[in-house]
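Archive maintenance. Older records in this collection stored only the sequence; we are now back-filling the structure field for every entry so that each record is complete. The fields below show one back-filled record exactly as it appears after the update. Entries are processed alphabetically, and Putative malate dehydrogenase (Putative) is next in the queue.

ARCHIVE ENTRY
Title: Putative malate dehydrogenase (Putative)
Organism field: Secundilactobacillus similis DSM 23365 = JCM 2765
Length field: 353
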Amino acid sequence: MIQLVKQIYQAYGFTDEQSQEVADTLVYTDLIGIASHGVQRLIMYDRNIQNGKVQVHSQPEIVKETDVSAVVDAKFGLGQLNGIYSMKLAIQKAKAHGIGIVTTRNSLHYGIAGYYANLAANEGLIGMSSTNSRPGMVPTHATRAFIGTNPIGFAMPAEPHNFIYDVATTTVPQGKIEVYRKLEKDLPAFWVAKDGNQPVNDITDDETLDQLRDPEAPVGLTPLGGVDEETGSHKGYGLGVIVEIFTGILSMGSISNDITTKDLHSGPSQSFVAIDPGIFGDKDQIIKRFSAYLQEIRDLPAIPGKTVYVHGDKEALAYEDRKQNGIIVDDKTMAEVVNIAKRLGVDYAELIK
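Back-filled structure field:
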């Protein structure tokens, strides 16, 4: 699959290196079990490349910089490439000065936030990344979406594998709704709200679910905590606003409500942070202590039939399983990928076996 995705991006006009980077991010996401942001997203990126929203040959530009910070104008290049560029810049600053913070504007959908945080962790650093997005979240007591799904990714080196935390500040990301629609499965919980506080579960309710892409419609994703303060709705809502601060506000780029699918000149803002644990003490000892702490959590008594995991465990297990047994791609997504390959003249037959 990774070679097929790479050849598709080469056919779009991206360089070999860029195409490999994009393929790595998408297939890695499927390998760790996050199907909502893996190859399933290829159709959305294809649409944005075809309509000109993605500027294939653009190059990100640093527009403001200090020893520990930078603002990057991504100029509507592919989100994954913007993210890799910006996090590498943050890593470079952290290695030189202990910390690096980069905010990026005029970017595009970049996949999972945890991928970029983990780039830093793989370099022995603490990593964080966030992105805003077009309106998806309905703020507490509101009746329409205004804030994006606004995920937060965090990663830190640990044994036997990195700690990786990656969540939307809505109950689920938009991509998970799309996966359930493709699989024709009803939504199992209060993920989508209509008129502020009415749950939507019926996956066949196409008219209502299609309105999730219309910020003026009375339909949106629930914040972490649901729709009421009694269940903690204000917590996910507040986290979404904090992401806006570190992305759109600090970069002077778009906030969620500025981003639309129709405007080719609006795109998300993102943030990338790398911190060297060594600025606080002996790096090896800090990581050793953190690893021991995580193991203590794993060793806690568990509910019968359940396992106590820490963030990153399930992804590590999924990665090992899929590396050995392959990735399962649903039929609708595979059909989309094959159609893209056919249109671009990519010989796909041997690459999907």
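Update note: The longest strand covers residues 99-105. The radius of gyration is 20 Å.
Entry marked complete.
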